[in-house]
Write a sequence for this structure.
C-alpha cells in the first residue's frame, strides 16, 4: 500500500511559452493572469502549493553579457514573486502559494513583515523559499554588499531565520483582543520587542503588524551542498531535492531525516519533494519523441549552460560543447555544477547537458499518464516518501504542459489513491502535515 504523497509546482514569474502554439503570444505574462490561470488549474488538481522562483539580476555570466538571457527570455524579464503571490492568492482559496526571497540581500524585518502580511491576506497559505542567492550580477545590484562566501551565506541565513522568527513571534497569538467595551485593540503586554543583536543582523522589533494565521510562512529550502542540507535540516518544512535516480533520492531523504533527528526535529515535520518534469503524451512513443526533440535543440542546450553560468557565477560559454568540462571551483551552486559536469567520466559537455535533461530532475518521467503514474508510485514505494515538485520544460510553463499534468497525470495518480482529491485544511502547513 503506497503512502499518499504531496505535489508542488515550480515556476518563475517570467514569460510563459511566449512563441508556442498555446502561448499568450508574448507580453501578456506581465499582468500575472497566466499564472493566476495555472494556479487555479493546479488547485483544481489539489496540488499542495505553487512555488515562484526568483533571482535579483539579469545575469551576465554567460559570454560576459546579458544578451543571451534577454534574447531567449532566460531568467529575465521576470517580476517580483511576492506581489504575484498576492494576486494568485486572491484568485484561489486552498492552494499554498510560496515566493522566493533572499537571506543575503533582504533584511529580516522587511522579509518578516511582508511574509506576515501576505500570509494574512492569503488566510494562512503563504510559503517562503529560503535562498541564500548566488551570482556576481546580484551583488552589483546591492551596491555595498559583495557576495559572502558560500558557507558563510548559510551561517548568515541561520541568523537571519532566528531574527525573522523572533519578529514573527513578537505578537502572541492572543495579542489582538478587540475589546469594544474597554476600547482596547491589542493587549500591549502581549506584543514584545525582540532586541535581536546578531553578528550580521540586528532588529529591535516588535513587528508592526498582527500575527498571521500560520504564525510564519511555510519554510521551503533547496540547498544541495553539505552546508545547504544542514540549513534545510535545521529549518525547512519542505526540502526540494535534486538527487539523481532512486538510490540518490532515497539517500538524500535519509540524509535529511538523519540530520533532522540530530538537530532534535521530528523528521516527519519536513517533506522531501523531488524535482521532476513529467512530459505527458498520448502514447509513450509520442512523449519520448517530444522529449528527445526538445533536448537536441540549441535553445535547450544554451538554456542549461546560461542558467548554470548564472547560478555558479562561472562563464560556461567558453567551453567546447564536444569536450569534457574541466574541474571548476565555484562559490555559487557547487552541488548543481558537479551534477552537470560528471567529472571523471570523460563525457562531453554536450552529453552532460543532454543527460542532465531538465535542469536538476531526479528521474525522467516521459510517457503516458499511466506510465508516469506507475513510475512515480514505484519511486515513492522505494524511497519511503514524501512527494514531487513539478517543473516546466525549459523553465517556461505552457497551458498545454499544465493541462497534461492536471487533466491526465494527476487524475491517474488520484485513481491510484496516492494523491489528495480534496484539501483537508485551510492552511498550507496543515495540508502539508496531513499525511
Ligand atoms: C528546485 C530548486 C529551486 C531553486 N530556486 C531558487 C530560486 O528561486 N532562487 C535562487 O536564488 N536559488 C534557487 N535555487 C538554488 C538553491 O537555493 C541552492 O542554492 C542550490 O540548490 C545549490 O545548493 P547550495 O547552495 O547548497 O550549493 C533552487 C534550487 C532548486 C533545486
Amino acid at each position: 500500500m503506497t503512502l499518499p504523497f504531496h505535489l508542488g509546482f515550480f515556476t518563475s514569474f517570467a514569460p510563459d511559452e511566449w512563441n508556442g502554439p498555446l502561448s499568450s503570444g508574448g507580453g501578456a505574462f506581465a499582468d500575472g493572469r497566466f499564472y493566476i490561470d495555472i494556479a487555479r488549474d493546479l488547485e483544481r488538481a489539489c496540488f499542495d502549493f505553487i512555488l515562484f522562483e526568483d533571482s535579483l539580476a539579469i545575469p551576465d555570466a554567460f559570454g560576459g553579457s546579458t544578451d543571451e538571457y534577454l534574447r531567449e527570455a532566460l531568467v529575465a524579464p521576470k517580476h517580483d514573486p511576492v506581489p504575484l503571490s498576492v494576486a494568485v492568492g486572491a484568485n484561489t482559496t486552498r492552494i499554498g502559494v510560496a515566493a522566493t526571497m533572499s537571506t543575503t540581500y533582504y533584511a529580516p524585518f522587511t522579509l518578516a513583515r511582508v511574509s506576515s502580511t501576505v500570509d494574512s491576506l492569503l488566510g494562512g497559505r503563504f510559503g517562503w523559499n529560503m535562498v541564500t542567492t548566488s551570482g556576481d550580477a546580484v551583488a552589483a545590484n546591492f551596491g555595498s554588499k559583495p557576495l559572502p562566501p558560500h558557507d558563510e551565506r548559510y551561517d548568515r541565513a541561520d541568523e537571519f531565520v532566528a531574527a525573522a522568527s523572533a519578529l514573527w513571534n513578537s505578537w502572541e497569538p492572543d495579542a489582538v483582543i478587540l475589546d469594544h467595551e474597554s476600547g482596547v485593540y491589542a493587549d500591549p503586554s502581549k506584543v514584545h520587542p525582540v532586541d535581536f543583536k546578531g553578528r550580521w543582523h540586528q532588529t529591535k522589533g516588535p513587528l508592526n503588524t498582527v500575527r498571521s494565521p500560520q504564525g510564519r510562512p511555510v519554510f521551503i529550502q533547496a540547498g544541495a551542498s553539505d552546508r545547504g542540507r544542514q540549513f534545510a535540516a535545521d529549518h525547512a518544512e519542505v526540502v526540494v531535492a535534486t538527487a539523481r535516480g532512486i538510490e540518490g533520492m532515497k539517500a538524500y531523504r535519509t540524509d535529511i531525516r538523519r540530520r533532522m533527528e540530530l538537530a532534535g526535529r521530528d523528521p516527519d515535520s519536513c517533506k522531501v519533494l523531488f524535482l521532476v518534469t513529467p512530459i505527458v503524451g498520448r502514447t509513450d512513443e509520442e512523449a519520448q519523441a517530444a522529449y528527445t526533440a526538445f533536448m537536441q535543440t540549441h535553445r535547450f542546450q544554451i538554456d542549461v549552460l546560461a542558467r548554470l553560468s548564472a547560478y555558479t557565477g562561472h562563464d560556461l560559454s567558453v567551453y567546447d560543447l564536444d569536450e569534457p568540462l574541466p574541474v571548476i571551483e565555484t562559490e555559487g551552486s557547487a552541488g548543481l555544477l558537479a551534477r552537470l559536469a560528471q567529472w571523471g567520466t570523460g563525457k562531453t559537455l554536450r552529453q552532460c547537458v543532454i543527460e542532465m535533461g531538465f535542469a536538476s530532475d531526479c528521474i525522467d518521467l516521459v510517457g503516458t499518464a499511466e506510465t508516469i503514474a506507475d513510475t512515480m508510485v514505484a519511486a515513492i514505494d522505494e524511497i519511503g516518501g514524501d512527494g514531487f515538485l513539478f517543473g516546466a520544460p525549459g523553465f517556461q510553463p505552457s497551458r498545454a504542459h499544465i493541462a497534461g499534468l492536471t487533466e491526465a497525470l494527476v487524475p491517474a495518480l488520484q485513481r491510484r489513491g496516492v494523491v489528495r482529491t480534496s484539501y483537508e485544511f485551510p492552511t498550507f502547513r496543515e495540508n502539508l502535515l496531513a499525511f
About this structure: The radius of gyration is 22 Å. Residues 150-168 form the longest helix (19 residues). The pocket of flavin mononucleotide is lined by residues 10, 53-55, 100, 129, 131, 133, 222-225, 228, 240, 242, 275, 333-336, 360 (CB under 6 Å).
